[in-house]
Design goal:
alpha/beta, nine-stranded mixed beta sheet, 11 helices, 39% helix, 17% strand
């Protein structure tokens, strides 16, 4: 009997320990109290955090799931030498507001991008979308083709909905713990050279997740994106550049192939020795390709081609 009680205590103790690890909230900071590197602006009643640097033709940078303006820290200064570069934190990400009952679908985020352009007086811009941000950029280009000069899709998803079970509120308490358990592992998986995932980089990505309401936003993304309408790809008129990573381990191969089939006339560039976060891992090479494309300089010059390990023609 004594051994049975010891076993029961150990069993329930383990359950409580796991429960506390997964469920305990780690969102300890109020959004209003967080130090922000950029500026804040109201877009349709919601507060968006953004960085706005440089002058010239506009480039709007849209991050992926779990990213924020930090994801473009190396691209912004270089591109801003002769472009106006705007990087935003999508609602619920980075240092933008956490709005509990907002629409977190990709279509709604695309409308916020257009709303930010309106608020900043940007009539047209080239869009750079990474991963999930690629779908949002495609939605902007499809809904407002007259506003998009050129479209860069870096390690982008294809816009297809992957069949999943409907999210239930029961998973909400677990999201914070799961993000702690697997967040750094997923970030490392995005790099070919994992030594680049320093503690500084990890903390920069982790910090916004400690803002209260972050996991509510993540749950709403899982829920709201299920009702996103199909992208009207035929409405996209801007020239398209597809940028892929040689060692992609986040976006599945079938999705990348699907994306290429939708833009058969697009230029396709593969960045060698790079993982999913190619814009951060190989910024010099990516900047060279993006600059040449958004400036409409035609075929890659020899120096630019040499900076990229693999350059493919039209997809």
């Amino acid at each position: 009997m004594r051994k049975l009680w010891i076993a029961l205590v150990a069993f329930f103790g383990a359950i409580i320990a796991v429960w506390r690890l997964l469920v305990r909230r780690r969102e300890t900071i109020d959004w209003r109290d967080v130090s922000k590197i950029g500026r804040l602006i109201k877009v349709n009643g919601e507060t968006i955090h953004y960085v706005d640097e440089g002058k010239g033709p506009a480039i709007v940078l849209i991050h992926g799931l779990g990213g924020h303006t930090y994801s473009y820290r190396t691209l912004i200064p270089d591109l801003a030498r002769d472009h106006r570069v705007v990087a935003l934190d999508l609602l619920g990400f980075g240092y933008s507001e956490r709005v509990r009952d907002a629409d977190y679908s990709h279509a709604a985020q695309a409308r916020r991008v257009v709303g930010l352009m309106d608020a900043l007086g940007i009539e047209t811009a080239s869009l750079v979308g990474h991963s999930m941000g690629g779908e949002i950029a495609m939605r902007v280009a499809a809904a407002h083709p007259e506003r998009v000069d050129r479209l860069v899709l870096a390690a982008s998803v294809s816009g297809d909905r992957v069949p999943t079970l409907p999210p239930t509120p029961l998973i909400k308490p677990f999201l914070s713990g799961l993000s702690q358990l697997f967040g750094k592992r997923m970030l490392r998986r995005g790099f070919y050279d994992t030594s680049k995932v320093t503690d500084e980089v990890w903390q920069a990505y982790r910090r916004p997740a400690t803002i209260r309401g972050s996991m509510d936003g993540l749950y709403r993304i899982l829920k709201d994106t299920r009702r996103d309408p199909p992208i009207q790809f035929a409405s996209i008129k801007a020239p398209v550049l597809l940028m892929s990573a040689e060692y992609e381990r986040i976006v599945p191969g079938w999705m990348s192939r699907r994306l290429r089939s939708r833009f058969p006339r697009a230029e396709h560039v593969v960045i060698g020795d790079a993982g999913h976060v190619l814009l951060e891992e190989r910024p010099v090479e990516c900047i060279a390709v993006i600059r040449r494309f958004v400036d409409g300089r035609g075929e890659p010059r020899a120096a630019e081609a040499a900076a990229v390990d693999i350059v493919a023609g039209p997809a």
